[in-house]
Structures are given as C-alpha cells and as structure tokens.
Amino acid sequence: MTTTIDVKPSAENELVLARIIDAPREKIFRAWTEPEILRQWFVPKPWTISKVEMDVRPGGSSLVVMKDPDGNEYPNPGVFLEVVENEKIVTTDAFTEAWKPSPKPFMTMILTLEDAGDGKTRYIARARHWNAEDVEAHEKMGFHEGWGQCAEQLEEIASSL
Amino acid sequence: MTTTIDVKPSAENELVLARIIDAPREKIFRAWTEPEILRQWFVPKPWTISKVEMDVRPGGSSLVVMKDPDGNEYPNPGVFLEVVENEKIVTTDAFTEAWKPSPKPFMTMILTLEDAGDGKTRYIARARHWNAEDVEAHEKMGFHEGWGQCAEQLEEIASSL
C-alpha cells in the first residue's frame, strides 16, 4: 500500500496526488515510459488500455487508448514537454503532436520522483489546468480516486520489476 | 524589401507568413534570440518594446513587453518549446513559464529558416491557434500586415548585423 503525504498545489488550477510508493524511482520511471509496463497500471481497473505509443523525449508524441468495460475506446493523444530520466516527466494534451494544437487543452501533468530512502519514492503528480472549470470537472471525474487507485496499481507493478 | 512566397497553412487553424528575406539565416536567428536586437524589429513601428527577457532553450521563458504610442504596455509572456540553432524556433503563450498554464492559450508560433542561396533565407512563420475564433480574431488584429511589417524591419536589422 502507498502512503498518502501532504503536499499542497504549487500553482493555480492544480490538482495534486502525492504518495510514498514502495518501489525505487528507477522502476517507477520504467513503469511510466515503457508501453508494455504502463498498460498494466495506467487506468483504474476494470478499465484497460488497448494501445500505447510513446516517443519519450521533449516534443515526442504519446498516445494512450483507454477502454471501458463495455469495450468503448477513448484515445488520449499528447506530447512530452520535459523528460529527466528517473526524476521528472511533463506531458500535456494541449498538443496532439509537436506542435499541433489539440481541440481542447485540458491539462499538463508534472510528475516528480524523489528518493525517499529504503528503496521508496516520494511520488508527486500534479495536474495543472487552464481554468477553474476544468479543475472542477476533473475532480468530479474522480481525479483523487482514479489517480490514487492507479498509484496502488503502479506500486504493485513497479515493485515486481 | 522581402519577397512574398506562396506557402499554404500546414495544419488547421494556422496563419502563415512566408517571405524570402535578404539576410542569412544565422543573422535572422540572432535577431530572434538576442534581446537587444529583437527589440529593434519585433513590433510594427511606431509601437516599441520596453522589455525583453529570453531564456532560449526548450522550457525556457520569454517575456516581451510591447508599448503603444500612448505609452500603454502589453506584456507577452511565453515559453520556448523547441529551439534548433539557425533553423527553427517554436514558442507558445499557453504557458507563462515551464509549466504554468496561462490564463488564455492563444497561439503557438513555429518559425523555420532555410537557406535560399545568395545569402538569403526562406523565412516561414506559422501561427497555430486552438480554435477557429482565435484565428479570425488574429486576422482581424492585422496578422498579415503586422507580421509582414515586422519581416521588413527584421530584414533591415539582420542585414546590418
């Protein structure tokens, strides 16, 4: 089980998920950047992922297709803005590829990984939005529950690598 | 005088300015990335620029404060998304710094510089927007006239470097 830690938003219109995860940050970074690992934890079960493509570098594209239990698919295209191995990943859905504006910029995700000792990681994921309405919508979509459940799934996968 | 060339938009919601500029691309790149040069050509006269700060690298911030003839100032914060020396510059106002969403993402600018022979440059500046309304607003603000006048000012400065 992950441990929730108290981390406040660092900017306007931000939602933050902060946990101590019982896996080293190198393994968590792999779980975020290797498609075959990411697809095992990146959506809350019983949803699944039917496709993952990632070009992990600033300006590289990513595509994650999520599938609900009825088989409906939801493509999520985006772009990496910043990648620091084992430390930081920033992605946004404001572009579908470098540099094509998407129909609706919704959020920018900033993930930071810090060594927390004993092979554990201080895991902070910040979702920043362009306006207050989108923050509220994201909270209602279940940001905390969804990202929380994914953090648990991530811990299970990463600690098994 | 620059020469207008026929280049079509390469994406939805794009406005494009394409010219042959009588200056080599190394000098044009300098005029785009050195604050003391940029302030001499980056707004159509009689507007002026009262402040320029630029951290020219992917994720680096830029701030250009424009001043109208009555002395009113208009700050334009943004972020560099991609920089290839003497070849390409991509900026956006969707972030005010890495990675803080701005109040209103308006456009992403993609500038490409290609050698056109005889010390000239094929200069293509693409302004991509997130929706059709912003493209229309940008055209009404005088995109073609404004960016065209700036291209002439740029040629004058760059060819004197």
TrEMBL record, chains A, B:
Pfam family, one: AHSA1
InterPro entries reported for this sequence: ASHA1/2-like_C (IPR013538), START-like_dom_sf (IPR023393)
Transmembrane feature ranges: none
Domain Activator of Hsp90 ATPase homologue 1/2-like C-terminal: 22-157
Family: Belongs to the AHA1 family.
Protein name from the UniProt record: SRPBCC family protein
Native organism: Nitratireductor kimnyeongensis
Lineage, top ranks: Bacteria, Pseudomonadati, Pseudomonadota, Alphaproteobacteria, Hyphomicrobiales
